C-alpha cells in the first residue's frame, strides 16, 4: 500500500508542474494581448472581448485570471514596476553623490521606458489613465523604496536634509510628468529628458527649507 501511495504521489508532481506552467502561460498570453490592445485602442475604448480575441483562449478562461480590463491594466503596471524597480534601486545605491543619485534614477527610468517597446507603446497611448491608476501594490512599493533610499542618503550625507516626503513626491512627479512628455515625442529622447529632470531637481534643491534639528553634514 505504501509503494502505491508513493507512486501515486510521484505521478501527481509532473501533473501539478504542468498545471502551473499552463496557468502561467495563460496569464501571460492575456497580459501580452492586453498590452497590445491597450496600445492600439487605448484603455477607454478597449474591452475584455478585444483582449480575448488577441489570445487563443476560450472566453471563460479570461475570468479565471482577471475580473475586468481594469484588473488586467493594473497587473500590467505592476509587472512593469517589478521590471524597473531593481534597476532603479541599483542606480541609487551605486550613486557616489547627490547628482549621481538624481541623474542615475531619471536616466534608468527613461531608458527603461524606451527600451521596452511594447510597454512603451501602451504607456504612450494611456498616459492619462496611468495618472489615476498609480496606486497598484508594486508601484506603491517602488515609491516606498525611493523614500527609504532618500532617507538613507540623508543619513550618509549624500542628500541635503530636506523633507523626505516632499522630496519623494517631487521625484515621482517630475519623473512621470517629464516622462509623459518624452513618450509623446518622436523620436523619444531619454537622455535629454533625464538631463532636464536632473537639472530641474538639482537647481531647485538649494532653495528648499532644511529640517529643523537635523545638522547638515559638511562636504569634505
Overview of this structure, please?
The structure is a single chain. The protein is mostly helical and 220 residues long. The chain has two domains: 1-67, Arc Repressor Mutant, subunit A; 70-206, Tetracycline Repressor, domain 2, CATH 1.10.357. It has ten helices and no strands. The protein has helices at 2-41, 48-53, 59-62, 69-93, 98-115, 117-125, 127-131, 137-155, 164-183, 190-205. The longest helix is centred in the N-terminal third of the chain and has 40 residues, at 2-41. It starts with a helix and ends in a 15-residue tail after the last helix.
Low-confidence stretches: none
By DSSP (H or I, 4+ residues per run), the number of helices equals 10
Order of helices and strands: HHHHHHHHHH
Q: What is the SS-derived class? A: mainly alpha
- Domain count: the total is 2
Tell the overall outline.
elongated
Instruction: Please name the CATH architecture of the largest domain.
Output: Orthogonal Bundle
* Strand composition percent: under 5%
Topology summary:
Blueprint: H1 2-41, H2 48-53, H3 59-62, H4 69-93, H5 98-115, H6 117-125, H7 127-131, H8 137-155, H9 164-183, H10 190-205
Summarize this, please?
By secondary structure, the chain is an all-alpha fold.
Descriptive terms for the model:
single chain; 220 residues; mainly alpha; Tetracycline Repressor, domain 2; 2 domains; 10 helices
